[in-house]
# Entry
Amino acid sequence: MASQVDGLYFLLVAVSAFFTLLIFALVFVFAVKYRHTVHPKAEQIEGSLPLELTWTLIPLGISMIFFAWGSLIFFQEARPPRGAMEVYAVGKQWMWKFEHETGQREINALHIPVGRDIKMIMSSQDTIHSFFVPAFRIKQDVLPGRFTSTWFHTTKVGTYHLFCAEYCGTEHSGMIGEVVVMEPMAYQAWLANGGATGTMAANGKELFTQLGCATCHRSDTQGRGPNLVGVFGKPVQLEDGRRVMADENYVRESILNPQAKIVAGFKPIMPTFQGQVTEESLGALVSYVKSLAQPQQKAAGGAPAAAAANESN
Amino acid sequence: MATAVQTTVETQNYLNNGYGLKSWLLTKDHKRIAILYLLSITGMFFVGGFFAMLIRLELLTPAGDLVSSDTYNKLFTMHGITMVFFFLIPSVPAVLGNFLIPLMVGAKDLAFPRINLLSWYLYIIGATFALVSMVMGGVDTGWTFYTPFSTTYSNTHVVGTALGIFITGFSSIFTGLNFIVTIHRMRAPGLTWTRLPLFCWSNYAASLIMVLGTPVIAITILLVALERLFHIGVFNPALGGDPLLFQHLFWFYSHPAVYIMILPGMGVISEIVTCFSRKRVFGYEFVALASIAIAVLGFLVWAHHMFVAGISVYAALVFSLLSYLVAIPSAVKIFNWTATLYKGSIRYDTPMLYAFGFMGLFTIGGLTGVFLASIGVDVHVTDTYFVVAHFHYVMVGGMVLAYMGGLHFWWPKMTGRMYPEGWAKLSALLVFVGFNLTFFPQFILGYMGMPRRYHAYPPEFQVLNVLSTAGASVLALGYVLPMIYFVWSLRYGKLAGPNPWNAVGLEWMTPSPPPTENFAETPVVTWEAYDYEHQPDEEVPVGH
# Structure
């Protein structure tokens, strides 16, 4: 991905340099050649339709090439590949908090294995932040009240800058950290020392019981709320006739604003959990609901098929 | 075409028609109001410039050691607010446009002289609100006022500043309204739309944006104040609002606003390039219609500021496409100005040097805008110094150079005096060199990943930041010099005469400074715009 962005960037630099030099050269040559001391009488020229068309259509054509290429890259950036390793991030004034699916938590540092696709699922607990890793050429704003996501493929072991790129107050320039890309073995060792207290999904399950969700969202058809097994990642038929995708933001909204989207066949009886769950808890609950849709647990840190699927990056 | 007119300043003119304070503060003369604006925005320019100097000094070293983080955040916020709302937006329209549009169309004044004066008072009241808020401790939201930071998390004087911008917005609406009506209704006999100077066309296009766009920012700012004061949930998701709604509303005005800033500058360049090439502009209709195209398309590209903000992929696609399209009319203008030079008879007077500088720097500013329209690249460089460099190339390299060029071009008309040409050339050179040294390194910094609005930064970015700060001090010198020689010229400058550049255009057919009523009798236009073919070629001696 980074190399594609750079490819387009440097083509833009080349084309821009060409046009800039063209304009500079023409201005310079005309200004010298037709200076009034050697060219005292200007020749009046009204204009030229062919020329106008030339310098309208050629830039238009060139920019359409850039438009197509830039959009292709963006579509890739916007669509995380299947099987990407997921990391949850919460931005707050002025730090980054990360939680791995396997339960390890860290602040202002993100440890990840090399050769993997990494999908970031991010939200803010106060104002807008932006997750920016220049080395990966990616940036995504992190918003309060919803999840945004981005992804990247790790190609090289190393430590990279992580910046907050959306101005967020006093210590904005201190809201920085590092992304540590490690060999798979080193990563496994890091995970082992990570002090995890259960996977995110397991923590989510615990919360699910504590908050009383399980009394209605039962894993049979007798609950007052929809059965959540197998729901995530699939379209849901709503009471008002709409169909929506059950993604991270759908789960978030269903917890915080349950009346917004009622599943067909159910009554709007669920109370809101606004103010009762932190951003971290929301992440855990989402992770749990997700796990209900994938019966076999993925082995953390090793999904060779998924990694191979994205060699092109 | 050049009529014999009195060239002494002793005759009655708008400057000697009353000396008391009241004769200025209650004037309805568009020329005097232009001078009031000139003084006010020059003051604001140096306030904004002072903040910029402190920013550049802080960034000399990687650690945030000169001022505190809070102070730094206030500095870049107040720099942006002062420069955008209180200098760039009013600059060419409110000073040069106010002074020149009635002269250029052969009218005695603008259509609504009282509203014109009111617009200056609104500007002053708005600027006072902003300045008082700054003195009381300032504001730290960034000039963009992004929510929910501005409505919930900032502990600074958001509402006072916002109110200042709100009020000043109306001064801009009134100016736009005045220009539109004047250009429609008050053109001299024979002055058809296709004979209109391009300066009028571009100010007309900018006026359309002022009138149609400014109410949106006014509403948006009001909503920010309402949410901040009364916790009405509009933008903050914790109150049930949507933070992206703010960004849509803000950029719906603030992107077209960059065209409010640049279009009148483009008009200045058309006047200067034709005069100092002694030629009709190449492709008049294309240059004129390009202004309108920019004004219309400019309203349809706002979300290109939001590619990484969390908008839909398909929305991003459409806004990217439209952003490429808006670049085309700007390119057309640059090509036409360049073609105007071809087979001209070119002189290198100071205004022309500024025009050359504009053409080079605006080209770079425009082309780097294409980088940002390309979504894949934008994701990497947005919110970095690349963006800072890009908009300074357009706003300073483009707009401020055009404004300076225009000021030098029409200074003899406004004051009746010439400035010292040698010093003026030196200052043009200093501005050009200083500007590039300040802002070119910032493109590289942005590509390397330095985020904007950073008080402290990793040490690998230091070398380029030092270059940038060094450039800023050269640039500052380039701005201070004209201040000195312009003031000097008021007393000691050579008398200019009605038409020191031997230019065409109605404004040059009346004495300098012009009489209060502009023209002794209403001119009748029988020639095309930029009719340099029929303008006598002999040197018009400057002064006596």
Observations:
- Chain B touches chain A through 88 residues (CB under 8 Å).
